[in-house]
Amino acid sequence: MATYVIGDVHGCSETLEELLARIPFRAGEDRLWLVGDLVNRGPDSLGVLRWARAAAAEMVERFVAVLGNHEVHLLARAAGVAEPRPQDTLDELLAAPDREALVAWVRGLPLLHRDGDTLLVHGGLLPSWTPDQAEALAREVEALLRSADGDRLLACYAARDGRFDDHCRGGDPAARAGCALAVLTLLRVVRPDGRPRCDFTGRPEEAPPGDLPWFAVPGRRSEGARVVFGHWATLGLHVEPPVHGVDSGCVWGGALTALRLDDGALFQAPRRDEVGSAA
């Protein structure tokens, strides 16, 4: 049984179809994992999400998709606690007759998937987190997102007021959940004191002085685990075991990447979808 991990799709359904045709995937045997950001920016978020939900129903435990920041934004928009952004391409999805079923399926996705010593996450992990701590925090946030207080958490996330950066060490459950949600879906770099900087989007060399990619911090407590992540298109494909970044910027004109975890084999499809001014 092989495991294939696919990077950020962003609604590029034609490119996803091409990539799936290029990997030697054995239906009924192999596993398929997606690193989040299935939707938004690209032209066919509705088609990609319908495909993912159907694949999950057919493959059951052999299919995994984790929440990315664009899925969280979709949930916030569906809940009416976030405004559309200029680059959003979610209107067709939000107007679809099966919208409620699709949104409910997204809300049920995990923030982190763990299989032994392998962790699948969209953004990253704080260097101070062990794999056990990261998994426990993910389960805590997932439970809150699916509860009656979930929309309040989504509204706080949508506000992006920067306070998440200051609450990762606090004891308040709501603040801790907000920080964990931001880290797991948005993190790229951390500050010299270990706090997350969740608003940075550039290349590693463009980070503020002293900031480091979360996976490059010496002594990070998850360094014994294999971590597969997406989210960082400006980093590009980053295969430096045990860390694997598989966002190769498909929606930006790059390729869509699949990584076979068993042997490190890479498969790519150049973007085929027509995309407007993704940003």
Annotation keywords:
about 280 residues, alpha/beta, Purple Acid Phosphatase, chain A, domain 2, five-stranded mixed beta sheet, 8 helices, about 15% strand
Structure explained in plain terms:
The structure is a single chain. The protein has 279 residues and is an alpha/beta fold. It has a single domain (3-270), classed as Purple Acid Phosphatase, chain A, domain 2 (4-Layer Sandwich). Helices cover 31% and strands 16% of the residues. The chain has eight helices and 13 strands. The chain has helices spanning 13-22, 45-59, 69-78, 91-94, 99-107, 131-145, 150-159, 173-186; strands spanning 3-6, 31-34, 63-65, 112-115, 118-121, 189-190, 196-197, 212-213, 226-229, 238-240, 243-245, 255-260, 266-270. The strands form three sheets. The chain has a five-stranded mixed beta sheet. A five-stranded mixed beta sheet has the order 4-5-9-11-10, with helices on one face. Strands 7-6-8 form a three-stranded antiparallel beta sheet, with no helix packed on it. Strand 10 and strand 11 form a beta hairpin. The relative contact order is 0.18.
What's a quick, concise take on this entry?
With 279 residues, this protein is of the alpha/beta class. Helices cover 31% and strands 16% of the residues. It has one domain (3-270): Purple Acid Phosphatase, chain A, domain 2.
What layout of secondary structure does this protein have?
Layout (H helix, E strand, L loop, with lengths): L2 E4 L6 H10 L8 E4 L10 H15 L3 E3 L3 H10 L12 H4 L4 H9 L4 E4 L2 E4 L9 H15 L4 H10 L13 H14 L2 E2 L5 E2 L14 E2 L12 E4 L8 E3 L2 E3 L9 E6 L5 E5 L9
Parallel strand pairs: 1-2, 2-3, 5-9, 9-11
Antiparallel strand pairs: 1-12, 4-5, 6-7, 6-8, 10-11, 12-13
Helix pairs in contact: 3-7, 6-8
